[in-house]
Write a structure and sequence with these properties.
The chain has one domain. The chain has 3 helices and no strands. Helix 1 crosses helix 2. The chain is mainly alpha-helical. 70% of the residues lie in helices and 0% in strands.
Length: 70
């Protein structure tokens, strides 16, 4: 269980979204937190992969190497 303080305008927006999605605000908030944590994890993995790369290539170079540009 977690208690947080949320301003009234945000609560109204959450309630509208929950009504539109046929759910409740707790589900909306839980899903938002899950997506946020996944995004943070993805960003950290991307940063780690970037550090391991010795060189970088432009999108144009990659497209040519893959034969995507004629």
């Amino acid at each position: 269980m977690l208690a947080i303080r949320i301003e009234k305008p945000l609560i109204k927006a959450l309630d509208l979204l929950a009504k539109e999605k046929h759910t409740n605000r707790s589900v909306i908030i839980r899903n938002a937190i899950i997506h946020y944590l996944e995004d943070i994890e993805d960003l950290e993995l991307a940063k780690l992969a970037q550090k391991k790369m010795k060189t970088t290539k432009s999108l144009l170079q990659i497209r040519k190497e893959l034969g995507l540009d004629s």
